Amino acid sequence: MSFSEFIHACDRNDNVRISHVICSSRDSILAEYVKPPYRMNTLRLFFSMTKTFASLAIGIAGDLGLLTIDDYIIKYFPEDLPQLPDKNLCRIKIRHLLTMSSGIHDNTYAGLYAQSNWIKAFLKQEFPHEPGTYYRYSTHSSHMLSAIITKVSSLSLEEFLNKYLFHPMGIYEAQWEQSPEHLTAGGMGLSLYPHSLVKISQLLLNKGVYHGKRLISQDYLESATRQQIVKQDDVNRPDNHFCGAGYGFQFHISRGGFYRLDGAFGQLCLICPSKNLSVTVFSENSKMEALLSLVYEYLLEEPFICGEFDAGQEISGEAKNSTAEIPLRKYQLSQNGLDLESIEFIRKNGAYSLILCEKEHTNIIDFSFSGEKQGQIYFIKDLQKHRQEYVCIATFDQVLKLKVFLIETPYIVDYSFIFSGKEVLLEFSINVSFTLQNQTIRGFAMPDGLFSEGRSI
């Protein structure tokens, strides 16, 4: 099988929507693909692939003698302990955080996410299972690893990894998000360039060595990347053949003993040491089992064939009526879940701009009926809004439609505008999101809201 056949197979599969693919050996990139309008030189949000970096930080901290994975976690948080702690809390070790086996029974993410201090909220939980005996996926367990790094090093997780991992590897662009108590989020929110993740995959393939320099011990990585616990709910699941039911230290263990970093909506970095191969995939929205099935079928067969692939296909969307007139008005919006207060359409340099006024930010989306437009707006990533790059495609056939690709994330936003006299109906939809809902918003022209074509910003 070849790389090009893999790309075509992904395109045919309804459960796989990829944007980037990079195949690498220990020392070189073998093949890569990026789907327009995405690029290799923009940040990409990792979602839960972030968790693996918390694990790497723990390994490095252990190498430095700052901690051991058999330390009990309560020693690091005496001031945050509840008055009546659960009996199993004092038994939780760092290794139990690493293996998602702290003792919680259910996924408690929703309840903890809403709290103002994630450390205190985690420690206040009930732990009905003896630590180390029961797997339950927990983003806040990963966040506790970030907090421990700060306790032992007096550095945030971001600062620690910059110093001991990223900067020595020539990675300088890392963007993180913060928890409510202003710690680096340990379980989500990291963004890097795609090729920087390839560097990490090469570090793993080389057992902790990058360009001749050891950055993390081989012993830790060998423990981290082999099965430490079984995901009991995933055993013998027919839809989990390639994902597997094993878990290491913030690594998922896949079929055949390969291991992976795994993030929401189909973000993947699969490490295959026996084949001297890593496969890095970013997705608009892919189901992990479907994606892995194609990776195994097309990319893991011997020999690996790079092949050629023309990634220059056009993104869909051409104006059916490029002479359409957009009402150059400002509209007051009804209450909505986007925190939008008003929108305004103006002419700008022969094209148009949509001005979106929120409570905290004013975003400007440029669009044209003669081709795509690019720019930057504030938009949600995992936890917070960041200024990030977009590409906009506009069409107008009775309804103005703007398709906005937030190319640092999987998010694709569709704005539809139906104009009727001095009113507008805005329909907002997004392909995937943990935080935003599709919705319809009404707008009403504001007094003196009709502006001339020459109005500028």
TrEMBL record:
Alphabetical keyword list: Hydrolase
Keyword Hydrolase carried by entry: yes
Record Pfam families: Beta-lactamase
Coiled coil: none
GO MF: hydrolase activity
Domain Beta-lactamase-related: residue ranges: 36-284
Residues of the signal peptide: none
InterPro entries: Beta-lactam-related (IPR001466), Beta-lactam/transpept-like (IPR012338), Diverse_Enzym_Activities (IPR050789)
UniProt-listed SUPFAM superfamilies: beta-lactamase/transpeptidase-like (SSF56601)
Taxonomic superkingdom: Bacteria
Name of the molecule in the record: Class C beta-lactamase-related serine hydrolase
